[in-house]
UniProtKB/TrEMBL annotation:
Pathway in which this enzyme or protein is active: Amino-sugar metabolism; N-acetylneuraminate degradation; D-fructose 6-phosphate from N-acetylneuraminate: step 3/5
Swiss-Prot/TrEMBL GO biological process terms: carbohydrate metabolic process; N-acetylmannosamine catabolic process; N-acetylneuraminate catabolic process
Keywords tagged on the record: Carbohydrate metabolism, Isomerase
Organism: Peptidiphaga gingivicola
Top EC category: isomerase
EC number: 5.1.3.9
Function: Converts N-acetylmannosamine-6-phosphate (ManNAc-6-P) to N-acetylglucosamine-6-phosphate (GlcNAc-6-P).
Identification of the protein by name: Putative N-acetylmannosamine-6-phosphate 2-epimerase
MF terms in GO: N-acylglucosamine-6-phosphate 2-epimerase activity
Gene Ontology cellular component annotations, sorted alphabetically: cytosol
Length: 231
C-alpha cells in the first residue's frame, strides 16, 4: 500500500469546496479554510478545481485529494482523462474520479481512464454510488474506494446521513482495499459511526466548511424552537 494511503487510516479528511456564485468561491479562501482544517486535525484535504488545488497545495502540508467538477448531470466529477491529468499537474496527490459505468464525455471507459492514470503514477480515488461501482473500481486497481456518490446516481436511495449500509457492503466485499466514507456526514456522531462500521477514513465537507448550509441548519432549529415556545 502506498504510504500516503496508509497515513489516512483512522483519520479525518476535510472537503473544502464552494460552488460558483457562493460568497466563499475564491481559491485563497478555500486555501485558508484548508489550513484551518489541517490545524484542527485533518489528515488530508479534498478540493475542487485547478485553482483551488494549486492554492490549497501551496498552503497545507497534508495530502491533497483533487477533483474537477464540470457540468451538473451524468459524469461530472473529473469526467475525462484530461481533467484527471490536469488535477494531478495542479498538485493533487490523489485524484478523485467518478467510478460509475455511465458514459464519459471523452468516450473512455472508467477502466481505461484509471489504467492511463496508473501508468503515469497517479493515485486514483474512486467515487462510487453503488456496490457495482466499487467492484468496477476494485477491478481497475484504484488506490481508494469511496461512497461519495451514494444517493446521487439513482442506484441507491439517498439516506438522511451517511450510507452506512453501502459502506459495510464495500468493506465486506473488498477487504483488501481502503474504503473511505464520504457523503452526508453531518455530525461527530455520524463520523464515529462510519469509523465503527469499518471506514478507512471519513470525509466531512458541508458540516465543517459550508457556513451557508450550517447557518441554515441552525436557523431552522431556532425557528422550530421559537414556534414551540409560542404554543
Amino acid at each position: 500500500m502506498h504510504p500516503l494511503i496508509a497515513s489516512l487510516r483512522g483519520r479525518l479528511i476535510v472537503s473544502c469546496q464552494a460552488y460558483p456564485g457562493e460568497p466563499m468561491r475564491c481559491p485563497e479562501t478555500m486555501a485558508q479554510i484548508a489550513l484551518a482544517a489541517e490545524r484542527g486535525g485533518a489528515a488530508a484535504i479534498r478540493c475542487q478545481g485547478l485553482a483551488d488545488i494549486a492554492a490549497v497545495k501551496g498552503r497545507v502540508e497534508v495530502p491533497v485529494i483533487g477533483l474537477w467538477k464540470e457540468g451538473r448531470e451524468g459524469v461530472y466529477i473529473t469526467p475525462t482523462l484530461r481533467h484527471a491529468r490536469a488535477c494531478s499537474n495542479a498538485g493533487a496527490d490523489v485524484v478523485a474520479v467518478d467510478a460509475t459505468g455511465r458514459p464519459r464525455p471523452d468516450g473512455l471507459t472508467f477502466a481505461e481512464t484509471v489504467r492511463a492514470l496508473k501508468s503515469e503514477g497517479v493515485l486514483v480515488m474512486a467515487d462510487c454510488g453503488s456496490i457495482d461501482d466499487a467492484g468496477r473500481a476494485a477491478a481497475a486497481g484504484c488506490a481508494i474506494l469511496s461512497t461519495t456518490l451514494a444517493g446521487y446516481t439513482g442506484q441507491r436511495p439517498r439516506t438522511d446521513g451517511p450510507d452506512v449500509e453501502l459502506l459495510e457492503l464495500m468493506v465486506a466485499e473488498f477487504p483488501e482495499f481502503p474504503v473511505i466514507c464520504e457523503g452526508r456526514i453531518h455530525t461527530p456522531e455520524h463520523a464515529e459511526a462510519v469509523m465503527a462500521a469499518g471506514a478507512w477514513a471519513a470525509v466531512v465537507g458541508t458540516a465543517v466548511t459550508h457556513p451557508t448550509t450550517i447557518t441554515g441548519w441552525f436557523d431552522d432549529s431556532v425557528r422550530r424552537g421559537g414556534e414551540r415556545a409560542k404554543r
